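Hi V.,

You were right to ask for the full record rather than a summary. Here it is.
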Amino acid sequence: MKRYGIASIAVGALVLFVCQEQGNAETFQDVSADHWASSEIEYIQEQEIITGYSDGTFRPEEFISRGQAATILARSLELEVETASGINYEDVPEKHPYFSEINAVSEAEIMNGSMEEFRPEAPLTRAQLSAILQRAFDLEASQDIDFHDVNTSHWAYEHIAAVVSERIATGRDDGWYYPNEEVSREYLAVFMSRALNEDFRPDDAYEGDDGDEQPWAFRGFELGDSLKDIEEDLGSPEETMPSRYGFQWHIYHDNYERYIQYGVSDDGTIVGAITPQDVWQGNGGIDNHATRSDVQEEYGEPLSSMSKGDVNYSLEGKQKDAYLIDNMYITFYYDGQNHDEVSNIMVIDADVEDAFDQYFAEPTSEMRASYKSQVHHISNAVRTDRGKGSTTPDDDALGTARKHSQDMARSQYFDHVNLDGDGPFDRMEAEGIAFHSAAENLARGYPSPVDAVEGWLNSTNGHREALLGNYDYSAVGVAFDERNHRPYYTQLLYTKP
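Predicted structure:
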């Protein structure tokens, strides 16, 4: 990857808009001498990085798009724009006005897209700009940061720490960084001026937050944030599927690392999250390395029960604790075979949870498919988190797993051996599924896929060994008891000859 040191930058001319005129900040009708960024705007205009409009305005509060940012970086860093080869973003055809510049910054690994899209018209966010500047100027973090909205699980934590360490960016006085806030022309002028000229950097170094509690954040996003913000940073989800609550799960992961399920309501608001990996942080310093004792010391006694409809369901005696915190139901799952460390977390908006007046999901075909996919994804995330690697879903065995779950639900039994005396390996062989080694996990009555997977993880009867075994393929089948809607789960894991 090419790096561009601050001292060696030769700033080239850039005309970002077609009709622009030169001048200093004092000549802009909308930038007075006492404007908070007047010096930086004047400097960046003199360097011909961003200039004003032909009507004599600078429009300091106008937002910068990702495509415009690519153009600014490509020309100010004097990248080889004309010789840049195509990266083949689906939304950046050759006729796009920023095609060459986007290819240049992508080749230099200063900016990148997601899911084969660059999103050139999308607004640039403060987190994205921090990442761009860190890469372009090869900045290094010399201190930790603890903004309320940027914890160590945030995708841009290291980038933000670097620009803050170099005094290019600072947080607000309230202890927040606002990573998803869109970048305006005035803010870009300030950030670029500080990156290019140390004289513009503030004298005071970052000193940390004011001691207020951090919010609950999942890959940097909180309940109440919008799907739009997530997609601008993380791109499109790997898969979406319905939840038992009525909202949609949006699943994100990088080959099952940094795994997260966001629950998204109909209006695009984040109302839930699930992750078994170290991509979240709660207030009080609780994170994925906390133990059950740590959690209970911080939050006190967990809920003993939860009411659904006319039934009160006990939560005691299980390998999990549930709390009502900040209008969220937060369930901590623990690994009983690893010092009771937090192994998974599920957070549901309290209004959503309270409105769901039943314990089990509706037994629809859509919900069966959703539960099947969630078990597969969460299992792979758990395996990956423990260095076991993910399994590939095998369509050939899906029918075998599904039929056994259906048979157990229909005939009201729970066993690896069906009523005809056939075990899992008999059923696999009968359906022509060749395997070298195999295992089967069963679960019944767990209200959600994460509960089923955590049940296997905490089992001392071989289920944990199967879940974390050296298998390459898997298949999951889910069925519901039509009478009481209780789910039955079958998971096959195996290697092929």
